[in-house]
Design the sequence.
């Protein structure tokens, strides 16, 4: 009998290697990364287009184009698309990031041939009905009015705008007038210039076979618009840190953002910062949590994050506290950064963080869809899949001395931007 009063031995996480996908190409040259694994008769197909903010001619064009692609194509109305997806139990979404715009389809394998033509027709030319664009603009104006009443939203918007500048694709903010200036022609132009073969990658996963591959080429090998990969427009970022305070009357809490510009996944210090950020504020047992939430009781939630994009990245600490705790909280945030610059992380804490991170990476390799997500992340950012194994090895082998050196390099108080709302 299993004695559940005795905790099982903790096992070391090993063999964190991404199963390499099969790479093949559609007739139009679009690469397909296929992860054929799993036991369920389900297919996941995600088309990734380099069609995010760095490739816009008009602010908000990427977001608006992605949002309205499902609202009708040459053969299907928005009602037809919704009804067909519902009837066959499929799911179609158009998620976006700062750099990419995606088309994501989940389908039962037996119904893939019924749903794929909808995606193909959508990619050959969405209609972007004017009335849907008008509704989209009004919805987002209303949502924006609500969002701008929230301190954390205002703080984040102000922080990224200062960090990157207001005209940078990663830094500009939306306003009612930004939405009002959008036209149907802006969406059509953005689609025709960016949703092309040169900007596209396809990630296929699940219970795939030769029939699925044939279907994919028949439907998408001739319908995606032809076009070369477009260069991105990336201006210089701001390199003079500032401290900004914004009054938001009649609020009982203050939002705080403290951080700086960093780098993308290609940088030599990315893996080390992945660990260092976790120690500082990247998980529930972090130092910021232990000090500012559990010991001081200044806040319910505090965290730090290292965001990596195609053309840059940034680090920040975020929290909301009672107005009377603002100065003590800021003081303690910098104190925790300073401790990491002076004292070595002890072995017990480092082992716990390493195990937590390796467990997270292990979860990322659980099942074909999760594996395909890892493949998509690395391939779309131009990083070799071997970088996943390198990250795992860096987590296992990083030393307290290396972490202290990174903290001294990137946690300098005089290089931090500070926004308080």
Sequence:
């Amino acid at each position: 009998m299993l004695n559940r009063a005795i905790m099982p031995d903790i096992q070391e996480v090993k063999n964190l290697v991404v199963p390499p996908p099969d790479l093949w190409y559609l007739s139009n040259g679009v690469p397909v990364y296929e992860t054929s694994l799993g036991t369920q008769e389900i297919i996941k197909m995600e088309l990734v287009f380099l069609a995010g903010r760095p490739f816009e001619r008009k602010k908000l064009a990427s977001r608006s184009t992605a949002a309205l692609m499902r609202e009708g194509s040459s053969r299907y109305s928005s009602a037809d698309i919704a009804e067909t997806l519902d009837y066959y139990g499929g799911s179609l979404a158009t998620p976006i990031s700062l750099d990419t715009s995606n088309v994501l389809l989940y389908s039962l394998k037996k119904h893939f041939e019924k749903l794929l033509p909808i995606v193909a027709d959508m990619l050959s030319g969405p209609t972007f009905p004017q009335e849907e664009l008008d509704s989209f603009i009004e919805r987002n104006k209303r949502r924006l009015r609500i969002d701008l009443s929230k301190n954390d939203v205002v703080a984040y918007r102000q922080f990224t705008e200062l960090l990157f500048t207001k005209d940078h694709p990663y830094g500009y903010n939306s306003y009612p007038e930004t939405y009002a200036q959008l036209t149907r022609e802006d969406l059509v132009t953005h689609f025709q210039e960016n949703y092309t073969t040169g900007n596209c990658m396809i990630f296929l996963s699940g219970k795939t076979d030769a029939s699925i591959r044939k279907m994919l080429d028949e439907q998408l090998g001739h319908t995606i618009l032809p076009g070369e990969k477009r260069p991105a427009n990336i201006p210089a970022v701001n390199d003079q840190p500032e401290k900004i305070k914004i009054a938001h009357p009649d609020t009982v809490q203050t939002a705080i953002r403290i951080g700086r510009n960093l780098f993308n996944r290609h940088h030599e210090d990315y893996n080390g910062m992945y660990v260092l950020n976790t120690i500082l504020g990247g998980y529930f047992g972090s130092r910021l949590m232990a000090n500012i939430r559990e010991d001081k009781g200044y806040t319910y939630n505090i965290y730090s994050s290292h965001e990596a994009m195609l053309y840059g990245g940034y680090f920040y600490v975020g929290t909301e506290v009672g107005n009377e705790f603002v100065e003590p909280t800021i003081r303690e945030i910098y104190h925790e950064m300073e401790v990491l610059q002076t004292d070595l992380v002890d072995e017990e804490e480092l082992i716990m963080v390493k195990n937590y991170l390796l467990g997270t990476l292990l979860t990322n390799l659980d099942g074909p869809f999760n594996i395909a997500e890892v493949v998509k992340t690395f391939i779309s950012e131009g990083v070799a899949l071997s970088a996943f194994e390198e990250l795992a090895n860096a987590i296992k082998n990083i030393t307290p001395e290396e972490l202290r050196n990174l903290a001294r390099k990137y946690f300098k108080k005089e290089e931090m931007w500070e926004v308080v709302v």
In short: The chain has a mean pLDDT of 95.
